[in-house]
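Margin note: ligand = 1-O-alpha-D-glucopyranosyl-D-fructose.
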Amino acid sequence: METEELIFYQIYPRSFCDSNGDGIGDIRGIISKMDYLKALGINAVWLSPCFPSPNKDNGYDVSDYCAISPELGTMQDFEQMLAMFHKNGIKLILDFVANHTSTEHEWFQQSRSAKDNPYRNYYIWRKQPPNDWKSLFGGSAWEYDETTGEYYLHSFAKEQADLNYENPSVRKEMQNVIDFWAEKGVDGFRCDVLDMIAKDFIKHKNGNGTRLHEYIRELFGRKKTSRLFTVGECWGSSAKNVALFCAPERRELTAVFNFEHLCLQNDRFSPRKPKLRTVCQRMAKWQKLMQKNGLLPTLFLENHDQPRSVSRFGDDKKYRYESATALGALVLLHRGIPFLYQGEEIGMTNSHHKTIEDFDDIETRNYYFEKKDKMHQDVLLRNVNAGTRDNARRAIAWTEENVATYLPAYSEKERVNVHKDLQAEKSVYGFYQKLIALRRNAACFTRGEYRLIALKNYYRFERRFQGETYQIIVCFAKPCRLPKLKGELVLNNYKTIGSRLKPYQVLVYKKPSGE
Ligand code: TEU
Ligand code: CA
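Resulting structure:
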């Protein structure tokens, strides 16, 4: 399968499907939903961390890179799941949490025990904090450890100690992790905050350091890794340096996640609702830039760190179906590699909760307790509900039953659940199936070039390949004049076409050949 034919679905295992009633999603739960995934039409899965973890950051604090978290299942369960994905023509990539380990990892336990321990330089220790770097979860990025009276660096929680990639032993250990899973048949990796593995203390940079590309090539530029699909989470990637990560001759990555189209407010908890037009403008910009460089962009509006896109960019009340399907068209009909996130295919919305006790995410709780004496409680909870990563982590409601998990259930599960959506005349899942079928059956969408036509009251673009052309129109929140359209109507998320485009209406036309 060519890279441009891949259509990813991200699974956050703790919230996807719980098979044994302990309230935690698990691997056997994923196995039980194989037909659901196959019927949707996706052909690749990104599995968020499934390794042993104290779950301070829900698996992104790994305490053993080459094992399966007991709460999620056994290595046999994992191997059965992998075999079933492959039997169903679905590739599986794992989450490679490269930048840091849990402080409960054996390497860190050894490292902290003594200054002359062989593992000491697996991490970054200093007598005093050498700079004022902050943790992305609040507070200083330097934590004092009294065992040896020194400070260690943690870019995220203090329970997530940054690895020291200047140490060749660390790079060798991480190569071994990649090889362990590749030898099991895994098809690749999503690389967590990959651009942070290279620090630069001279240039005061906690990421994108001078040796970054050297480290990435050491990890993924080897003969035995050449078959792997690799996508780096690179927050700092710009159009210029994406080519430095993804140009084939550089033997680094297949693709990167760039977030410019989602970074639309100064911080994740500001309740300002970005405009869908702005998202489309940013996506159009990246389509042109990446096409010019001959590179494939990643296409996504959600993941396990993002609020639900239908609440953020659409209308999750009056036009939930229409806006969810419009957003699906943006992810699935552009040029690039689509990444859907669990629940996006049924138009899951943000969840609404009245107390901080209903939230688990460390970044959210740190924000709440830092602000709670400085802001009105109602305003603070409104911000928390809008921006929390827990919006993506409430258990998928397969039916209306209260699916208790490590998090209080999704507040809208009576209104939005899989069972109800699959029965609905206006089924989001049903429209995603059509979008995916169109993408898989018409070479325009995998091989075709992108051309922007209009981006004012609606977004209109074309995909063209070998004389075949499809036009895609996405209306924003306000109805507007219907542009003159020619050719065969292929998709419409409304029953009819009136004299004006309706809110969030999606129209796909196949233009007469040769036009
Ligand atoms: O996320 C990196 C990351 O920067 C996000 O957490 C982001 O900074 C934050 O949510 C913005 O408000 C990756 C993983 O996707 C995330 O789940 C982990 O918490 C983080 O790294 C640490 O591993
Ligand atoms: Ca379970």
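The longest helix spans residues 276-292.
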